[in-house]
């Protein structure tokens, strides 16, 4: 093997190695962006009401009649239900925790 062939082989090996490192870094970056993204359509909130009792709120959006609409499925100290609302999650928590018990 000539020096030129060895040089080309080393160069190709180095390029392939660097490309594989960049692919791994790109995948890691994409996974981190996906897990920390703010573009998710579904969220789960859990906690404990000040007056007692735990709550779980599932926030999601779905298209109805061509319009994106917000929904909350909640389960709290006073029952469970689905509501359609544009409220912020903290406002839904307040409603779920302050609701009167169903008779």
In short:
By secondary structure, this protein is α+β, with helices and mostly antiparallel strands. The chain has two helices and four strands, in the order αββββα. The protein folds into two domains: 1-37; 42-98.
Structure notes:
By secondary structure, the chain is of the alpha+beta class. The chain folds into 2 domains: 1-37; 42-98. Helices cover 43% and strands 33% of the residues. It contains 2 helices and 4 strands. It has helices at residues 3-36, 89-98; strands spanning 42-48, 54-64, 67-76, 79-84. A 4-stranded antiparallel sheet has the order 1-2-3-4, covered by helices on one side. The longest helix has 34 residues, at 3-36. It is elongated.
Name the strands of the widest sheet in spatial order.
1-2-3-4
The secondary-structure class comes to alpha+beta
Q: How many domains make up the 3D coordinates? A: 2
Strand content: 25-35%
Provide tags for this entry.
2 domains, 103 residues, single chain, alpha+beta, elongated, 4-stranded antiparallel beta sheet
Helix/strand layout:
Elements: H1 3-36, E1 42-48, E2 54-64, E3 67-76, E4 79-84, H2 89-98
Antiparallel strand pairs: 1-2, 2-3, 3-4
């Amino acid at each position: 093997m000539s020096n030129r062939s060895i040089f080309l082989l080393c160069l190709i090996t180095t390029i392939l190695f660097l490309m594989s490192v960049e692919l791994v870094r790109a995948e890691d970056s994409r996974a981190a962006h996906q897990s920390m993204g703010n573009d998710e359509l579904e969220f789960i909130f859990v906690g404990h009401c000040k007056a007692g009792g735990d709550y779980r709120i599932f926030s999601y959006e779905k298209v109805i009649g061509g319009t994106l609409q917000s929904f909350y499925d909640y389960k709290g100290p006073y029952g469970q239900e689905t509501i359609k609302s544009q409220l912020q999650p903290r406002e839904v928590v307040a409603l779920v925790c302050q609701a009167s018990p169903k008779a």
